[in-house]
């Protein structure tokens, strides 16, 4: 599985624009996801933006008034050079339809048809492909609406909804209220192979009711079969998810917490998408995610109440090293000083 985030999209658009032989005077996005890529391109170039149908109707978004530099389009004599951009190309149908529409619009100069991502470095329907990303692939902006969800496992808390607050996590009435009333965060529009959660099995009725109310369709719901929150606190939570993933034929596990994402991937040697970092955990990114997990643990340790700080500092020292802990402490103190100076609470 290959994955690209919003940050990757920005970087790949910027890199692709730098490779174009001529700077465009107008960027046109292919609906719907192509408008995202086209918007990034138009801001980088500081040139007007349009959709395919908008351009045909004469509707073009100009450059922002906060810009103090002149845009190239303001200096153009004659028909503008146009970049028609889609986020990806596979069958080529969208770009083919875009060519047909653009061909009927008068007054345009040279038109370049491009896609940010292709399965290979070139495609018959694209004049240029910015980056090759083979199948199977998912993007941050479409993974919840991807047919591949039928072969994915997804965590619930932190992905489909937020994690419970400490006051809500009482293994009692507050927690049941959270399970029933918490608003959705990210909702899949496709059937999911399985939901895998560290919620306790006894909360299955509330969990199933919430999922049904928000239209989440899935084949299986795996929950932790332990008696109470105290037993869960002593359990290896990532081991339950890893074992469930290992026994399945799923292509991908989608997990919100960095430490668990690292542990699941290491235990199964299979890809895990971490929504805290929007990185796909593979053998090449495991070290990065592990560092992020250690850094988060150290931050939490440094920010504990005073009575536990000495013990926490020793733990953080073992995780990151004394020099890194001192640097983190300095950053936290500077952050607090800035907040207090600005009157924040």
Walkthrough of the structure:
The chain has 345 residues and is α/β, with parallel strands linked by helices. The protein has three domains: 2-139, Rossmann fold (3-Layer(aba) Sandwich), CATH 3.40.50.2020; 143-284, Rossmann fold (3-Layer(aba) Sandwich), CATH 3.40.50.1000; 296-341, no CATH class. Helix content is 40%, strand content 18%. The chain is built from twelve helices and 13 strands. The protein has helices at residues 6-18, 33-45, 52-56, 93-103, 173-181, 204-213, 229-234, 237-246, 258-268, 286-302, 309-320, 322-341, and strands spanning 2-4, 26-29, 49-51, 82-89, 111-118, 128-132, 137-139, 152-154, 192-200, 218-224, 252-255, 272-274, 279-281. The strands form three sheets. A six-stranded mixed beta sheet has the order 10-9-8-11-12-13, with helices on one face. A five-stranded parallel beta sheet has the order 3-2-4-5-6. It is elongated, with a radius of gyration of 25 Å. The protein starts with a strand and ends with a helix. The model is unreliable at 65-75 and 339-345 (pLDDT under 50).
């Amino acid at each position: 599985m290959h994955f690209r985030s919003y940050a990757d999209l920005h970087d790949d658009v910027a890199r692709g624009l730098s490779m174009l032989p001529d700077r465009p005077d107008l960027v046109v996005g292919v609906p719907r996801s192509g408008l995202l890529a086209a918007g990034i391109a138009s801001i980088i170039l500081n040139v007007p933006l349009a959709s395919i149908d908008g351009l045909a109707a004469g509707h073009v978004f100009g450059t922002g008034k906060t810009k103090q530099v002149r845009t190239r389009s303001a200096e153009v004599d004659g028909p503008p050079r146009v970049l028609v951009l889609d986020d990806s190309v596979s069958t080529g149908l969208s770009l083919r339809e875009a060519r047909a529409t653009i061909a009927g619009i008068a007054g345009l100069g040279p038109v370049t048809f491009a896609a940010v991502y292709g399965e290979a470095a070139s495609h018959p329907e694209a004049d240029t492909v910015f980056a090759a990303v083979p199948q199977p692939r998912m993007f941050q902006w479409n993974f919840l609406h991807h047919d591949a969800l039928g072969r994915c496992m997804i965590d619930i808390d932190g992905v489909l909804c937020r994690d419970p607050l400490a006051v809500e996590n009482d293994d009692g009435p507050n927690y049941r209220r959270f399970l029933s009333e918490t608003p959705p965060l990210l909702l899949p529009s496709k059937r999911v192979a399985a939901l895998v959660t560290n919620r306790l099995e006894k909360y299955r009725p509330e969990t199933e009711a919430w999922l049904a109310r928000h239209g989440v369709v899935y084949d299986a719901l795996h929950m932790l079969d332990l008696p109470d929150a105290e037993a869960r606190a002593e359990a290896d939570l990532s081991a339950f998810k890893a074992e469930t993933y290992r026994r399945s034929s799923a292509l991908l596990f989608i997990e919100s917490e960095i430490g668990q994402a690292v542990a699941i991937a290491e235990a199964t040697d299979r890809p895990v998408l971490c929504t805290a970092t929007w990185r796909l955990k593979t053998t090449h990114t495991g070290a990065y995610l592990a560092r992020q997990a250690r850094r988060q643990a150290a931050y939490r340790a440094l920010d504990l109440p005073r009575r536990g700080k000495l013990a926490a500092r020793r733990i953080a020292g073992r995780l990151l090293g004394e020099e890194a802990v001192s640097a983190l402490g300095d950053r936290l103190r500077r952050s607090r000083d800035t907040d207090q100076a600005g009157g924040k609470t």
